[in-house]
């Protein structure tokens, strides 16, 4: 993770009409329902000041867009001056990094929005994870919407990328893709975790071609359903790793791998 960026700021009144939201780069979409909730109970005495970057003569908001919209809504939809924390000399990459790492009292960005901002900021881990995922033929969905060949379980996949490293992570994700052709149910967190841990534990012992062939014979939901059905018989990820091992072994005695966990 990048180190925290420490910059002095100036509190100043800025017209809401001048405040820009960089949604095409790292900011999330505005949530109208959240804006209404904030507006209905708005109290200026306890409201947080939006954090703004004064860059190239523009006031760019990197934290507080919902509070800004709620203030305008609370003001009968009319623009108004808002007290902001204004930072100078930030680059757009630094703004994105601050957005991804904000720790205020508002709703924190989702894991998908954090990753998008970190990629925009040029964070090496985030960019490496994105590259490794796209190279095998999958697309990271920052909005975390399930779909064919769309990786929505970002937190689980990023955890495995960190644990396994790019090479083993790609090996596991390629097997999932080749085995189930990007079926959304094959890209659930439980399946991604189970297959990644299988690769980590049995690499050098298992046959990737056999794994793909065996995956094609079962519904991708089997790993999730059968794992859940195990209850507490195996802790955490091991119940999903067990399902992957059972699918790989099948009825073969010659190709079967031992249970090592």
The amount of helix comes to 40-55%
Strand-pairing-aware structural class: alpha/beta
**Low-confidence runs:** none
What is the total tally of β strands? 7
Number of domains: 2
Could you state the order of secondary-structure elements as H and E?
EEHEEHEHHHEEHHHHHH
* Spatial extent as radius of gyration: 23 Å
Describe, in plain words, how this protein is organized in 3D:
- This protein is α/β, with parallel strands linked by helices.
- The protein has two domains: 9-108, Conserved hypothetical protein from pyrococcus furiosus pfu- 392566-001, ParB domain (Alpha-Beta Complex); 124-249.
- Helices cover 46% and strands 12% of the residues.
- The chain is built from eleven helices and seven strands.
- It has a five-stranded mixed beta sheet with strand order 1-5-3-4-2.
- A hairpin with a 2-residue loop joins strand 3 (51-55) and strand 4 (58-63).
- It is elongated.
- The model has no long low-confidence stretch (mean pLDDT 92).
List its traits:
Conserved hypothetical protein from pyrococcus furiosus pfu- 392566-001, ParB domain, five-stranded mixed sheet, two-stranded parallel ribbon, 11 helices
Quick overview:
With 261 residues, this protein is of the alpha/beta class.
Element layout with pairings:
Layout: E1 9-15, E2 19-20, H1 32-40, E3 51-55, E4 58-63, H2 65-74, E5 81-88, H3 92-100, H4 111-120, H5 124-135, E6 139-140, E7 150-151, H6 154-164, H7 166-180, H8 189-202, H9 208-215, H10 221-229, H11 238-249
